[in-house]
Amino acid sequence: MLGSTGSIGQQTLNIVRKDPTLKVAAIAARASWKEVLAQAKEFSASAIALEDPEAARSAEREKSAFGLDNLVVFSGPEGIARCAELDEANVVVHAVPGFAGILPLIRALEKGKRVAFAGKEALVSAGELIEPYIRKNPGQLVPVDSEHSALFQCLLGEDPDSVAELVLTASGGALRDYSLEEMRRVTPGEVLAHPTWKMGKKITVDSATLVNKSLEVIEAHYLFGVPYEKLKVVIHRQSIVHSMVTFVDGSTKAQASVPNMSLAISYGITYPERRPGVVRSLAPYVGTLTFEEPDAERFPGVLLGHMAGKMGGTAPCAFSCADEILVGEFLAGRIGFTDITRILLGFLESYRPKPVDGLDILREEAARTERKIRELLP
User: Fold this and answer.
1) Residues 87, 259: contact at Cβ < 8 Å?
2) DSSP of 288-347, one letter per residue?
3) Do 11 and 262 form a contact (C-beta atoms < 8 A)?
4) What pLDDT score was predicted for residue 139?
5) Same domain, yes or no: 200 and 242
6) pTM of the prediction?
7) Are residues 194 and 337 in the same domain?
8) What's the pLDDT tens digit per position in 127-178?
9) 217 vs 231: CA distance, rounded Å
10) Which residues, other chains included, contact 329 with Cβ-Cβ below 8 Å and sequence gap of 6+?
11) Does 172 lie in the same domain as 65?
12) Mind listing the pLDDT tens digit for each residue in 328-337?
């Protein structure tokens, strides 16, 4: 379980608690060493990893107090990657946010692990490095965010040449009915009040700007090998239909369920099996379902994924890194909500991508992007 202290990680561990057939071999997180030690004790994990070296030293020093004398403690990004390739694990749940998730993902895929995948930034940033593994072993990487899980399920058994369009649905976020003027004055607290999903702060802000949907467009491109011209976003306020696939004959397949991340997580872990009773059946509860085109004037963030994705090379990595910095600035109260997409658009319009030939160029581009974004801040 990589990213055990975040929203996906905690929901995954709740699934494990209810399913005696699932065992946890290793747990990894960024810095919350006390929480990780408590998780390791509860689930009898044999190893943990903490990205923060100081947190790893604290865990090593204090593990005996938790009754974990034999626990192996790994440190840094390399330590998380070590967890991802442990022999005793046959499934890796990947929910490591940001750049730190790239190396563990590549290691898990190289080792032939089934990856239940929720770390979209890793695939967005390093998609050109990771895509060959996905094409080589279909079904090895199973998405566990609701939209890509839906697309994955809708595409099962279908001829790729029969696909006309992949349609990702979006709730519209907390500000979907705000005017541009209202959005200029909005506070972080208002943005974090998502109408449907309970998520981390960064992804909740991304949902409000619709940048999250742009990141998901890039992710879908790499996951399913579909050109950007065939990737579309629609606003679906009810969050019942999680995504759709339209085919050349005019038919559409949709995956629908009550909005509960446990379903996609469980399916990602147990694929191709489905476990009974993960969520309640949708059938008796369906009311009106609506689908709307996103308003790109109010939410220009919805266009940026196609823009960065078509540029290729290091552009998706730079886009993801720039967004992460700007969301942090907004949450800290140093820029306004509409500044996020305004600065992102200006950054991409002048950006010149470089070829991706390894992780080093991505690290260099992440550092270069941070310097450039800092220069663009008001």
Assistant:
1) no
2) ----B---TTT-GGGGHHHHHHHH-TTHHHHHHHHHHHHHHHHHTTSS-HHHHHHHHHHH
3) yes
4) 82
5) yes
6) 0.94
7) yes
8) 999 999 899 888 899 999 999 999 999 999 999 999 999 999 999 989 999 9
9) 7
10) 335, 339, 377
11) no
12) 999 999 999 9
- Residues with Cβ within 8 Å of 267's Cβ and at least 6 positions away in sequence, in order, are 142, 144, 149, 153, 274, 278
> What is the torsion angle, in degrees rounded to the nearest 10, for the CA atoms of residue 321, residue 327, residue 331 and residue 335?
110
Q: Which residue has the tokens 């004959």?
A: 249
Q: Is residue 2 part of a domain?
A: no
Asked if residue 68 has pLDDT above 90, the reply is: yes
* Cα(215)–Cα(90) distance, integer angstroms: 28
Answer for the pair 49, 26: CB distance below 8 angstroms, yes or no: yes
Q: What pLDDT is recorded for position 125?
A: 96
Residue 238 buriedness (CB in 10 A; 0-12 / 13-18 / 19+): middle
- Stretch among 64-68, 210-214, 273-277 having the lowest mean pLDDT: 273-277
Asked whether 90 and 3 are in contact (CB, 8 A), the reply is no
Q: Residue 194: its pLDDT value, please?
A: 66
The strand pair at 241-247 and 252-256 is best described as antiparallel
Say which residues have a Cβ less than 8 Å from residue 3's Cβ, sequence separation at least 6.
9, 28, 29, 93, 94, 95, 96, 97, 101, 118, 119
C-alpha closest to that of 239 among 191, 287, 301: 287
Residues 126 and 217 in one domain: no
* Digit-coded pLDDT (tens) for 351-377: 999 999 999 999 999 999 999 999 999
Taking CA atoms, 221 is separated from 15, 102, 227, 307, 319, in Å, by 29, 17, 6, 13, 15
**Structural domain boundaries, residue 37:** 7-143
Amino acid occupying residue 120: K
Which of residues 77, 110, 143 is at a domain's end? 143
